[in-house]
Amino acid sequence: MVKEAALILTLSAALTSAADTMTGIFNENFYTLRTDINGDYMAPPVLLLGSDDRLTVSFDELAESNSYLRYSLIHCNANWTESSLVESEFLDGFNFGNVDDYEYSRMTATHYVNYHITLPNDRFSFRISGNYLLRVYRDDDPETTLLQVRFMVSESTALVGADVLSVTDIDYNDSHQQVSVTVDATNAGVDDVFNDMMVYVSQNGRLDNEVMVRQPLRVSGKTAYYEHLRPLIFPAGNEYRRMETVSTTYPGMHIDALEYHDPFYHATVATDYPRSQESYSYDQTQNGRFFVREYNSNDSEIEADYVVTHFTLDAPELPGKYIFLDGDFTCRRFDPQSLMTYNRATGLYEKTLLLKQGAYNYQYLTVDAGAKTPGASTATIEGDYYPTGNEYLVKVYTRRRGERYDRLIGVTSVKFK
């Protein structure tokens, strides 16, 4: 057991090694970390520089009263390492603020405080584009990060287009999807469009299989065409699984049992099975997102309760592989909080998480035990099916000669239909 725990910690460190600048929660009292852009929870966390866009970060603390929390911002390079800029180079105003927008839960078995942070606000504005990391910490312990969130600020000076096809350079309507990207950098201040742009493409908000390409297949004037590039071929995966805990009086979608055992409600998710050998079945999902919802409430943010949620996967033990729960509710991290544990007594992989009432998308990803770099597989449990309705986020960065940071010059998203 000790050896297995050590291996898990080593794997977790390897897969979250961006000095850990990944979105995540690092304190056991904090839960339900979410972002929205102008009230849209489906939107990626990208603000338009100089616009009226607002990013809202929300989270809960399981407590009877509020804590004195503060936040600060870090500017990052395209690869999410911290940039060398000082605060005055990326912000106009103050790089700290009190988290003073909060409400107490009401009519819930579990007491919590719901916090909101809105960016930018009357304390500061963004001077430049790029990647940013929001840190939240206690007023009396600024060195200890309670939680952090990645977001981006885009200039939108480049015109970015994207397409996704199931006819790829390696198979035809089988198990992959291929993305092509066009970047018109005429107004983006890029000197050499063949060498000076970095194009990042991610699938369904996942970080483990995000790819970066530098050189396009061809260039015409100031327009670069990223076509027929092997890194832009993705395993197609499968539609996300869904479950709902929108009520504490009756079991919701894909819930076998709902009970109250003081002090928490408990929901038993119907046992899942591998789908890799089944035929593809269409389902309209939100590609890994989750939505807080209490069926009988007009204000689920503070009236949704917390539910101890029990997941089980009926699959044979896979020596040499780890199975992780993937979705926005796990912050897309491969760590002990998302790791499924095999129970030899029941013959099931199991995981129990405390989740806020709502509608959840999730899937099971496998990672080789010896993995040193991110890269999980859908093939083993979920299967790879070309019709899957994946979403791809495309981000384009550049750095002028003499500049000390990566500018985010364009962002777009595309969905396979």
Largest sheet features: 6 strands, mixed
Low-confidence segments, ≥5 residues, pLDDT <50? none
Query: How much strand?
Result: 35-45%
Question: How many domains in all?
Answer: 3
Give the averaged pLDDT, no decimals.
96
Oligomer: single chain
Structural class computed from helices and strand pairing: mainly beta
Rounded to an integer in angstroms, the radius of gyration calculated over CA atoms is 22 Å
Distance between the termini: 45 Å
- Report the total helices: 3
Quick take:
The protein has 417 residues and is mainly beta.
Task: List the SSEs and their pairings.
Blueprint: H1 2-15, E1 24-25, E2 30-37, E3 46-48, E4 55-61, E5 69-76, H2 87-90, E6 91-93, E7 97-98, E8 101-104, E9 113-119, E10 124-126, E11 130-138, E12 141-154, E13 159-165, E14 176-184, E15 197-203, E16 211-213, E17 218-220, E18 223-226, E19 233-235, E20 241-244, E21 255-261, E22 264-269, E23 290-292, H3 300-303, E24 306-313, E25 321-326, E26 341-343, E27 348-356, E28 358-368, E29 391-398, E30 407-415
Parallel strand pairs: 3-12, 22-24
Antiparallel strand pairs: 1-12, 2-4, 4-9, 5-7, 5-11, 6-10, 8-9, 11-12, 13-14, 14-18, 14-19, 15-16, 15-29, 17-18, 20-28, 21-22, 23-28, 24-27, 25-28, 26-27, 29-30
